[in-house]
Specification:
Blueprint: E1 4-9, E2 14-21, E3 29-30, H1 35-39, E4 59-62, E5 67-70, E6 73-74, H2 75-81, H3 84-93, H4 99-111, H5 117-123, H6 132-143, H7 156-181, H8 195-204, E7 213-214, E8 217-218, H9 223-236, H10 243-252, H11 258-270, H12 277-288, H13 294-302, H14 323-335, H15 343-358, H16 360-364, H17 371-381, H18 389-410
The chain binds acetyl coenzyme *A (ACO).
The site of acetyl coenzyme *A has 19 residues, from helix 17.
């Protein structure tokens, strides 16, 4: 049987053959790169629901089964048994680090976590009350002015340096963006602290590095808090060719600086159809207010004339439970007592989940809870303010974006991203 798809243009009575390319997992693709030159027509795929924009060997999703793998390893296994930094190393190097490599990687990131004083000054220019995501987008782009020799980048060691630098600095940029937004002084990273602990420390500490003091004494950052946030970072580390990653690759395709490409990813992530959903979920749960009100909001979500959507539900790729959501749901239960998770919000969330998983509207559209549905309640218990939910997503995802950027740069025959259109104007 020929390894092709035949398409017939019934208007002209002509048929065209296109090659089928097989991946190592998942659906095959039809190579339509010669479609325009063969047929004189473009393909049309609003929202890219049927389009593979690149080939990649980083992350695999089976949306029907609810499966997610980084470099071939299932997310459940990574979340359970590996640290976020080990996962970063895995994504960047396509291999799990040994003990020494983990230690070296960790130390390098600690030393790279500081910001140039000039960049730190930039935060002062933004008005108090600005959203940390806006500041984060600008500061990430501004980082390119301090490391501008990207055009000469071609060696693996240089790619890795670019990557390690931005992964190391992102928690500091995010924490500075937050502290600027509330008019608080910046807390410098502490190299004696791990990656994840450092972020919590830079968010929470008082001038001089002291933590909050109450009648029981100084409130230290608990090991269980560090572990929970570390898992959240791992679950966000990469997610194939989503809107923000596609933005990163599109900018990369023009030859622009990698940190500017990442800044485009941060911008794309901010929207509430994407990473901004985690902030919207918690606001929505608070707006619903009590279990008694859930039915009314479910009815609104189902009403085709109402723009209201249930935040944290539905996904372009997952037509089954988002596996990351499953891990977070279990984590919520584990943390419930220890971190005093908001039981009212949890009750509302459970009721929504219960109804949605059995209601015909949601079942027939395969709308399951996604990662954002569960992360907010945990982040609130970790004393992360709502405006920082999406920046937390950014910190976790930066490694994925830069790994995808490196893959793009090293790929053969990569072209500038330049789609066409169906023209309907005059
Ligand atoms: N609440 C109610 N109805 C929904 C929801 C929802 N959350 N999501 C989708 N639908 C309905 C749509 O109205 C549509 O119904 P219709 O066929 O009767 O018109 C159908 O389900 C299909 O929805 P689309 O918008 O076409 O699906 P798409 O794949 O384009 O969108 C998206 C996916 C953007 C995630 C969507 O489900 C949504 O807006 N969800 C809420 C926001 C959210 O949680 N985003 C986070 C995604 S995960 C992430 O980025 C990390």
């Amino acid at each position: 049987m020929p390894n092709t798809v035949t398409l017939t243009d019934n208007r002209r009575g002509k048929s065209y053959d296109f090659n089928i390319l097989d991946g190592t997992r998942g659906p095959s693709v039809v190579d339509i790169s010669s479609f325009y030159s063969d047929t004189g027509m473009f393909t049309y795929d609003n929202g890219y629901t049927s389009t593979a924009s690149c080939n990649s060997s980083i992350t695999y999703i089976d949306g029907d089964k609810g499966e997610l793998r980084y470099r071939g390893i299932e997310i459940e296994e990574l979340a359970k048994s590996k640290s976020y930094l080990e996962v970063c190393y895995l994504l960047l190097n396509d291999a799990m680090p040994n003990e020494l490599q983990t230690k070296e990687f960790d130390l390098e990131l600690r030393h790279r976590s500081f910001l140039n004083e000039g960049l730190a000054q930039l935060f002062r220019a933004f008005p108090a009350g600005s959203h940390p995501m806006a500041t984060l987008t600008a500061a990430t782009a501004a980082l390119s002015t301090f490391h501008f020799n990207h055009l000469e980048l071609c060696k693996e060691s240089e790619y890795q340096r670019m990557a390690r630098r931005i992964v190391a600095k992102m928690p500091t940029i995010a924490a500075f963006a937050y502290r600027q937004s509330i008019g608080a002084c910046f807390i410098q990273p502490d190299i004696t602290k791990s990656y994840t602990e450092n972020f919590l420390y830079m968010m929470r500490a008082y001038p001089g590095g002291k933590m909050h003091i109450d009648l029981d004494g100084e409130r230290v950052i608990k090991e269980i808090e560090i572990k929970a946030l570390d898992t959240i970072f791992t679950l966000h580390a990469d997610h194939e060719q989503n809107a923000s990653t596609t933005s990163v690759r599109n900018v990369a395709s023009t030859g622009a600086h990698p940190y500017v490409a990442i800044s485009a990813g941060v911008s794309a992530l901010w929207g509430r159809a994407h990473g901004g959903a985690n902030e919207s979920v918690i606001k929505q749960l608070e707006m619903i207010g009590s279990v008694e009100n859930v039915d009314a909001f479910i009815a609104r979500a189902k009403d085709p004339d109402d723009e209201f959507r249930l935040m944290g539900f539905g996904h372009r790729v997952y037509k089954n439970f988002d596996p990351r959501a499953k891990v977070l749901k279990e984590l919520q239960v584990q943390l419930q007592d220890e971190l005093k998770l908001d039981s009212n919000l949890m009750k509302i969330a459970r009721k929504i989940e219960e109804i949605a998983l059995s209601d015909e509207y949601f079942v027939s559209r395969k709308l399951y809870p996604n990662i954002d549905f569960y992360s907010g309640i945990i982040l609130t218990a970790l004393q992360i303010p709502t405006s920082m939910f999406t920046p937390v997503f950014v910190i976790g995802r930066t490694v994925g974006w830069i790994t995808q950027w490196i893959e793009f740069k090293k790929g053969k025959g990569m072209k500038i991203a330049r789609p066409r259109q169906l023209y309907l104007g005059k």
